[in-house]
Structure prediction request, 90 residues.
Amino acid sequence: MAGALRRACGGLLPESISSLLQAVEKDQYDRAMAETAAAAAAGEQAGPGGAARRERRCSGGSGGGRAALWVEKYAPRSYIDMLSDEQINR
Prediction:
């Protein structure tokens, strides 16, 4: 019964999944571009010191260099890093 209904209507959704996913991706892209444009416009209005303030705020405010997430910092570099002593796992 459900198979016959699906064949008669062409599916449960009026559009295909791929077209829906493309629409969502396009919407996300458009929103990101709008936010980027708004941030760029706000940066131009902030004056010459605006970029330096943003850099300090984004970097965490302490130390030099790029801050990394702890997950990235302590991620295993090779398969051997993921192994542990069998006595610990008991």
